[in-house]
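Hi C.,

You asked whether I'd gotten around to modeling the 245-residue construct. I have! Everything is below, sequence then structure, no commentary in between.
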Amino acid sequence: MGELIAILSGKGGTGKTSICAGVATALAQLGEDVLCIDCDIGLRNLDISLGMADSGALSFREVYEGGYDLSQAAVHPEYPKLRFLTAPMNCAPEEIDREAFAQLLRQARSQFSYIFLDAPAGVDTGFRICASFADRVILVTGSDPASIRDASRTGELLELMGKESVRLVVNRINPKMFETLDITVDDIMDRAGLPLLGIVPEDANVVLAATFRKSLLGCTKKGAAAACRRIAKRIQGLPIPVSIK
């Protein structure tokens, strides 16, 4: 059975969606069957980060309402093992039929190794829906003290929801700044109160890839792309050390 992974953040601007796209793409490159579902209703943009803005993807609501089959999920133009369902438009998160969505996810488990749920920022309905179904949560945060504190508080909320497998990804770090401030991986873990899954550097290629409608991993092998590949291998259970560089 496939694993459901929710990509969450306590607030916007952390680069959560780019991390979701990068890690999912890396797993597909590694030979895994992957489904990405954009759950950010009304503000969907996972297609851009995946390099699938022109894919004409079905929404997950169109599939669970029975008009289409999961096999019709959009296929990535570069990575055939990666498929995508977008978020529905013109509806509120409260209108999502949770039982029908749950049935869709059960079906997806039988067809894919990993199913990524890219949740909306914040801790409202969309966040709770994605977290409730997840086997594993990846909590994405920035590297500044306020973001780390916010991640810690979000982690406490997830703990209250009964989520035990929660791992932190610190995004958009500046390695030189970390060296200047003498910050270590252990320092970040202590401040957030969560185990680290990965650290991702600031990388202009993330914006460039989206601008040119390409996947990040299709544009470069360095920087954020390399970090996403390391995270993907850790998800597979490989003993890849976590480091700032």
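If it helps when you're writing up: The radius of gyration is 17 Å.

Thanks,
B.
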